[in-house]
Amino acid sequence: MPVKISESLPARKILEKENIFVMTEKRALSQDIRPLRLLILNLMPLKSSTETSLLRRLSNTPLQIEVEFLRTATYTSKHSPAEYLDEFYITHDIARKRSYDGLIITGAPIEMLEFENVDYWDELCDIMEWANEHVYSTLFLCWGAQAGMYYHYGIRKYPLAEKMFGIYSHNVSKKNTPLLRGFDDSFNAPHSRHTEVRRKDVRKIKDLEILSESEQAGLFIVASKDKRKVFVFGHPEYEKYTLDAEYKRDRAKGLDIKIPKNYYVNDDPDGPVNVSWYSHAQLLYTNWLNYYVYQTTPFDLESLSISAR
Question: Most buried one in 32, 200, 204, 299, CB count within 10 A?
């Protein structure tokens, strides 16, 4: 089944060329079913590439998904034209009047800032608070996961001695959890971050479960026991050359950056990339949509704000 998106969104042509089933709003009107309503708060600077990556991961399911993109009103991205944002994004003033089956909050390249010093922190807190009653399940990614942990549970982030950068092996910590159904006991995933949330802090919160972690990279997936909040501290949506682009960008800036671990064949940045995380990344998004959204969200979305009180 398709992901429903705006007919003119640039990601549509890219996905269709890859034989990924997307459905325009016009065609979806003829479908006599209720699609899942998904909202994506895209905090990444390069909006279009993040949109495409996430839509790739969300598309390979038997579910019809209606996707809207959310942007902050208190901070305007300098990397995307205002016309693009006006056409394809809504602000929270519009979204707050609606209810959604799922919400994704992306990462952002602002890890070294204290949360309260982020330009749109108050607005993000407002969105996360609103989601308690108007969204069934929220998926937080990388910096978004750290922000969600801090806002909802008071769990702080800590600076790392050096950037966690590359592809790392992870273990399934909690067996038979629906989110990791079909996962191997160990699997790979990308990380690109300067800070971390620590295991000892998470274990103090009875409402939280550690689902996956890595000996090298630390926590990977933490979820609330009611399945309504999922925190992923890496970037499973990353494409083949995303880490390569980040590495070469930082090198060009003269930054002290090491090559991504377990990424280039023979650790040669001029050689090919070894893609080893795609299948589990796809499975993670599919399982979230199926078991944490579709299987549990009420058919009448408007009842969310009532049942959550």
Answer: 204
257 burial via Cβ count (<10 Å: 0-12, 13-18, 19+): middle
- Residue 231 CA, chain-centre distance (Å), reads 9
Would you state the torsion angle of the CA atoms of residues 204, 209, 211, 214, taken in this order, to the nearest 10 degrees? -10
pLDDT in tens, 127-160: 999 999 999 999 999 999 999 999 999 999 999 9
Q: Is pTM beyond 0.90 here?
A: no
pLDDT tens digit sequence for 32-56: 467 899 999 999 988 889 999 999 9
State yes or no: is 239 an active-site residue: no
Q: Which of 66, 196, 237, 280 is catalytic?
A: 237
Of these residues, 68, 142, 191, 196, which one is catalytic? 142
Each residue's pLDDT tens digit, 271-301: 999 999 999 999 999 999 988 998 777 666 6
> Regarding the domain delimited by 3-240+275-307, which CATH topology (the fold level of the hierarchy) does it fall under?
Rossmann fold (3.40.50)
Q: 125 catalytic, yes or no?
A: no
| 237 catalytic per annotation | yes
Beta-strand ranges (E) seen in 54-120 are 65-70, 89-90, 100-105
Binned at pLDDT 50, 70 and 90, residue 81 comes out as confident
Burial grade of 272 (CB within 10 A; 0-12, 13-18, 19 or more): exposed
Residue with tokens 């992901």: 3
